[in-house]
Amino acid sequence: MLRVTKLRYGFPIGLLLFFYLDGILGAAFPRQLFSAPYAMSSYLVVLWLVLSVFFEDELQIPLTVWAAIAGGFFDVYYTGIWGIFVFVFPIVVALTRACYKAFPINFLSGLLVYFIDITVICTLSYFGNLVVHMTSASFADMLVDSLAPTLAYNLAAYVILYFPVQWLFNRLRN
Asked: What is the Cα–Cα distance from 100 to 113, expressed in whole angstroms?
């Protein structure tokens, strides 16, 4: 159970902040993020959820529920329809928790787990869009034109934000 700490209120505020940062960065740098044929997707919401798994310690944040809510808002706000992220974000949280048990939590193992998470998100999103005929790109095109730039962008965000978010969680936990 999540005790009455600053984290009880800080976690949703951070999730909301990262949610809007995704949109703000996409709107501020459209030419850099979406120049044809390449397209980078910002998943700072996922970064917040993944780092929450790492830093929650003995506090039990209901991350699966928060991930589903964030995925639903992500779908509706950024695409205008209910989509795949309402299911993918909780899957990523479950995958991160499974990896958390297998790897020691430190900067480099977290980078590896986040790499896996972003790859899973992009792949599941691609196949979901393929099923509903929202894309006609080949899997190879998705790997080169979407997954590679998305990984580069999100891993750079991880490197920049890991220690500030760790510091924030430590401050909110105490």
From this structure: 8
